[in-house]
Amino acid sequence: DAKTTQPPSMDCAEGRAANLPCNHSTISGNEYVYWYRQIHSQGPQYIIHGLKNNETNEMASLIITEDRKSSTLILPHATLRDTAVYYCIVRTSAGGTSYGKLTFGQGTILTVHP
Amino acid sequence: GAGVSQSPSNKVTEKGKDVELRCDPISGHTALYWYRQRLGQGLEFLIYFQGNSAPDKSGLPSDRFSAERTGESVSTLTIQRTQQEDSAVYLCASSWVLGIEQYFGPGTRLTVT
C-alpha cells in the first residue's frame, strides 16, 4: 500500500472551509484514496473515497490531482463537531493480504474553533 | 436507519474472567470486522468475516481470542481468561462487500481489573 503523508495538525474557523491535504506520491494505478475521521471517544467514520475523479458527497469533497500524487479533503462549512483526527488511506480496490484490514497512520488533528 | 450496534457499551471484568462482546452489523452487509484500539493508539485489526468464506483470523493476538458470526448477521467476540493488557475499545465494522469502505459501531470499552 502506498504511504501517505499528512500534516499533524490544522486549525479552522467555524463556518469556513477546511482543506486537509494528503500526499501519496507512490500511489499506483489501481489504488484508491480513502478518507476517514475519528471524533474523540467514537469509532472511525468513513467520509469519502476516489480513484482519479473528484468526488463529492453529503459530508465532503475530495479533490485528487491529475497525477494522483496528492489529494485534498474539503469540508465546505466546518462546524465544531468536525473537530477530529482525519486519516488519508491509499488502498487497492481488491486483493492483497492487507485488503479489508483498515489501518491508520498519524492523521491530521483538525481543530475547528468558534 | 440502523447503523452498526455493539453491546455492551462498557464492560468491567476481573482478570481471568471470560467476556463476550456482541456486534450487530448493518442489514445486508456481507463483511464484518473486529478491531481493537488501545488508549491513544491506532486501530489493530483482529478478524474479519466475508459471506461464507473462512474468516481471516490473522490479527487475533492469542488463542484466548475467538469470534463467531451467524450467517450474515450477529457476531460475538470472546476473550477467555482476560488479562489487563486486553483493556481497550473493541470496535466492530461492517461493509457491503469486503473492502475499505467500512462502517463502524460505537465500540465496547473493556476494562480488565
Structure explained in plain terms:
The complex is a heterodimer of chains A (114) and B (113). Chain A is an all-beta fold. In chain A, 0% of the residues lie in helices and 46% in strands. Chain A has no helices and nine strands. Chain A has strands at 9-13, 18-23, 31-38, 45-50, 55-56, 61-64, 70-75, 84-92, 108-113. The radius of gyration of chain A is 14 Å and the shape is globular. The relative contact order of chain A is 0.34. Chain B is an all-beta fold and 113 residues long. Chain B is built from no helices and ten strands. In chain B, strands 2, 4, 5, 8, 9 and 10 form a six-stranded mixed β-sheet that branches. The interface between A and B is medium-sized, with 19 and 22 residues.
Present the secondary structure layout.
The complex is a heterodimer of chains A (114) and B (113).
Chain A: E1 9-13, E2 18-23, E3 31-38, E4 45-50, E5 55-56, E6 61-64, E7 70-75, E8 84-92, E9 108-113
Parallel strand pairs in A: 1-9
Antiparallel strand pairs in A: 2-7, 3-4, 3-8, 5-6, 6-7, 8-9
Chain B: E1 5-7, E2 10-13, E3 19-24, E4 31-37, E5 44-50, E6 65-69, E7 75-79, E8 88-95, E9 103-104, E10 108-112
Parallel strand pairs in B: 2-10
Antiparallel strand pairs in B: 1-3, 3-7, 4-5, 4-8, 6-7, 8-9, 8-10
Key terms:
heterodimer, A: 114 residues, mainly beta, 4-stranded antiparallel beta sheet, 46% strand, B: 113 residues, 6-stranded mixed beta sheet, 10 strands, globular
Mean pLDDT of chain A: 92
Q: What is the 3D form of chain A?
A: globular
> What does the average pLDDT of chain B come to?
94
Overall form of chain B: globular
Please provide the ordered H/E string of secondary-structure elements of chain A: EEEEEEEEE
Radius of gyration of chain B: 13 Å
Instruction: Specify the oligomeric state.
Output: heterodimer
Percent range for helical residues of chain A? Answer: under 10%
* Helix segment tally of chain A: 0
Give the amount of beta strand of chain B, in percent: over 45%
